[in-house]
Amino acid sequence: MTTTTPIQMILEDTYELNDVDSDQEDSKPGSAGEDNSHVSTSAKPKNKQKKKKKNKAKISSFEPKKDTSADLLLERLNVTGTECTSDHDSLDAHSGKTAPLTNSGMGGKYISAKCTSEILSVDPKFLRAEDELKRIFGSKVINAYENSSNSESQRRKQGLRRGPHNFHTRRTILVVPLDYWPRWDGSLSMELAETKEGLHFFRYTHPSSYLEAQRKFEAAKNTYDINGIALVLALHPYHVESLLALAEAFKYAGDHQRSVDAIDKCLYALECAWHPLFNPVRGNCRLDYRCDANKPLFLALRRHMQNLYRRGCCRSALEVCKMLLSLDSDDPVGALFCIDYFSLRAQQYEWLELFADQYGSDNSLWLLPNFSFSLAIARFYLERDTPIKQTPTDTVSSSELLKQALMLHPLALKKIVDRAPLKDAAWKQILKHRYFAYAEAGSPSLEHLIQIYVERSYLIWRLPELQKWLIDAALQVIQIVNQDEGEAKDWACVRKEAFQSDKNEYSHLSIADFSDSVPTIPPEEIRHMMVDRPGIDVQPDALDGQHNQQGHPGNLEYGNALRMLLQSLLPWVDHGLNTNIDEQREVENPGEEN
Questions:
Q1: Residue 552 parent element (H or E)
Q2: Percent above pLDDT 70 for the chain
Q3: What's the angle, vertex CA 532, arms to CA 531 and CA 534, rounded to 5?
């Protein structure tokens, strides 16, 4: 597989273009008299085979010039996507052309539809956690454990059954419905919105009965009434927004099993509503996240993916992550920033390299912090598992890829060492070097992405073999910087041009959503948020009042500070833009002194 990275091409083309400008009077680029055998760059391998690009300046010399400008250095930042064709593609495949690509900025992607469908196609046999656990531990072990653990719960929930037989006759691919779940009530449906360029666009639709349940849910949510949300589920067992909210409440209360059950039930309802043509495993079905009715599927899949990983089902988490990324190419929930980690944990190293080549973005996946480091790790394990004789001669080594990642994102090293943490004595001396000690992201977007990467992937750097490898690469980077300051400036130009915005373009992605740590709220405080009525015996009229003792969200006038703090931790709480209580009082009571 081709291994010359876009980062290498960016830097190499800088040298090429400088030499073309300086030598164009003496000889033309690509003439027979050129000799490139002496080529050597600090953080790049020798004698690499170039990818063929249209309109690419030919090579005259790789000697770096001191007057290298940022414009020349970054002329090739807009790397085109790798061609991806197959026998069943359109006529463009036979002509060797890819489908037109659209550019939507650093936050978006320009992606060939055919390429995306193929690389993000989901393998259904790896979707379910039960199937993966059976492959890991064996069917007998898992079946015995399930029978023993479910015997007591089955007796406790026997009264919820509507008969001796399983009512769930639908064949689902995401979760296995439990026997005591209510029969699917048809409260959701899905319609085909349009078909465009081989892609099918769908959206969920709600009947009037579901909208009434949604109104009651919003009333309970606005008053922090978990008891009211439970009442909505008692009357409408497959109201997906209520299931998502209750799952979060269980998670923050430390009851993770009930949280998982609520998410599974939510996914079951969403899958039962699928259109007959909606088949997300093929990679050609789309849902617009901007449509409010579609958002629950994205949120449920993201939480389901996290639950799968916590159970040790990394391959299932990877397949769900593929599905999330294929449903909306704008990636509203940040699947692109954890798909590399799940690939490494599932040991899908070759797939990760193929994905990085075929799933293109306007500034290339190689420039993102998570892919810069994860692709180096993937190459590290491929080198370990592949005999030297079978390794292509033009393959970029893992050490070179890691040095490139450290040169491009030096700030990530300091954060990895602190977060893991890495205790080797060598780190103290390494982090004192000016290149790492004074490293800065340079933009809010990049700093946020580095924090996401470190929070998601720091555990993998605790492996002893990776720690030693990282130390060696960091020491080589220090040596490179000491020998040539221009090398560091070149990488700084790449970093600055790739992340130009002064605003955080990824602020919608919460770092907590990529963390394995879950903050908890004491159960007694959760019970205090049930409007002083135990169980689910709540009068429906109570849900209609918007101004009870709970008061307005975020207003301390109606409650004590500790309680409001705990309420603010709940995932559905929205305090709005005006969070300054003094300013709010001044607006409501002008002229009143504080």
A1: none
A2: 62
A3: 105
Nearest Cα to Cα of residue 519 among 322, 256, 194: 256
Omega cis (within 30) before 296 = no
- Band of the pLDDT at 9, cuts 50, 70, 90? low
Q: Which phi and psi (to 5°) does residue 564 adopt? A: -65, -35
pTM for the structure as a whole? 0.73
**Kind and range of the H or E run holding 195:** strand 189-196
CA distances from 40 to 43, 49, 62, 63, 121 (A): 9, 14, 8, 8, 40
**Residue 582 confidence (pLDDT) above 80:** no
290's CB contacts (< 8 A; 6+ apart) are none
Q: Say which residues have a Cβ less than 8 Å from residue 473's Cβ, sequence separation at least 6.
A: 399, 402, 403, 406
Let me know: does 307 contact 132? Beta carbons within 8 Å.
Answer: no
| Distance in angstroms (rounded) separating the CA atoms of residues 144 and 139 | 8
The pLDDT score that the predictor gives to residue 530 is 56
Q: Is 201 helix (H, G, I), strand (E, B) or coil?
A: strand
State the Cα torsion 505-510-511-513 to the nearest 10°: -140
Cβ neighbours of residue 260 under 8 Å, at least 6 residues apart?
A: 247, 307
Q: Quick one: tokens of 196? A: 């465009």
**Contact yes or no for 16/34 (Cβ under 8 A):** no
Q: Which of 231, 127, 137, 141 is nearest to 174 (CA)?
A: 127
Check residue 120 and report its DSSP letter: T
